[in-house]
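not sure who needs this but someone in the group chat was asking about MBL fold metallo-hydrolase from Ruegeria atlantica so here u go. i didnt clean anything up, its just raw.
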Amino acid sequence: MSTSIKKINSSELIALAVHGDAFVYRSKRGIALIDGGGSSAKLGKKLAQELPAVEHLDVVVCTHADQDHANGLKSVIADWRTARRGQVSIGEFWLPGRWMDVVKRGVKDPKSLMSDLIHALDEGKLDETRLLLWTDTDEGDDNGDIPRRLARLFSTSGSSIEFDHVSRNANEPIEVENQALAEGDTQSSFSKPHPSEGEFNQDFQEPFEPDWLRAIRERKASVIDERDATHIFQSTRRRVVYRMGHHPHLRARNLPKTVGTSDATGRYCLALIDAAEAIVSIAKQAIVEGVPIRWFDQELYADTLRARGGQPNFLLPMNSVELRSTPTAVALPVLYYLSLSKANRESLAFYAPAETGCHGVVFCADTRLGTGRGGKTPFQVYPSMAKSDQIGTAPHHGAESAARAYSFATRFGITHWVCAANGRTKPGRSFQKIAKNQRCCTACPLKVGPFSTIKLSLSSNAFALPTTCSCP
């Protein structure tokens, strides 16, 4: 842990003004960065400006591959080092477990990965995957049949596909059991028994590292050059844009109108490329800089609704299980689309337990604090949440698509919300209904400019939002 943190009298939450989610959590136990906004250069400058005495981050978390969360972490060490004009370091990266196979292939051979994507686009495979996976409706969420529908789709091209790891129906009985409680809760939020934080983290160990990743670290020099990788991703984008303007292949396949336009599928394909580039860049950075990676798997959590792993008393998962072995393999390209699509609803969420005399923090990322169809089954509730008030990070920048999270607030003891604006997503009605003295936003005119960093002391005695929220 960073030695400079021991000088802090109470924990602190900082929402950096970087056009997207980038939260710094400081406590006596360590310092963590949760997401990085949309630009590594901006993030590096903000870290140097707002934390001039800090040269080490114990944990850096990337919750999912959306650009306004992940892009700021693509070269965070180099850009922070440049902005600070001195040495900096990171203790661990925490990444989604479903990225593991994308990292395995993308770090070694991104050209082949992108070629497969273009091939799938030309064959029309992305038309259906876009409809299956790229949706903002509740009805399509967490549909256990989606992986098997993709299996049938890709089996026609001769792909070898296994779905032991991806197809998950085990949580359905649990969802039915909790549905009434989620919709009309007459019980206390904490009346259901839960194991202690200690039980959840009794197997805390050093980060698990797959054999293939260890081998890549040992052959660091063979990792593809960053400039070459950038060229590969840019070239693939140009190929997609060309196809968006020249699409006789759509008419030739006699696709139904429900498939959508070539522009829509092209935009979906470009989003996949953006996500892949962010994932590969973050992983390569960890390899080159010698930073260990912890992997957090959401599918394993969906089986039992019991989160495990993380660092005790510092940062705990709410909707995932830290991997201690390599999950059952799912052959590309299917895992590729499952890994990179539905990013908002599939992000990781974490909890920073309250220190004595302080508030805790619930890092929602873009989740609705619930899993299952429509997000109706709440995430992990830790016992200490009943003993302290929590500060929540507004999910999906306050957008209405994550409105269910606010209805779960009392379950997790969330009393106040901090919103990190991204310049595009507007706060929805549910966020606006929260009392103005219980919310604040980096887009509110606190100091100067369109975005302002928010610093909050989490001490119960000193806690106060910097101003009442002026979001419409």
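also The first strand starts at residue 12 and ends at 15. if thats useful
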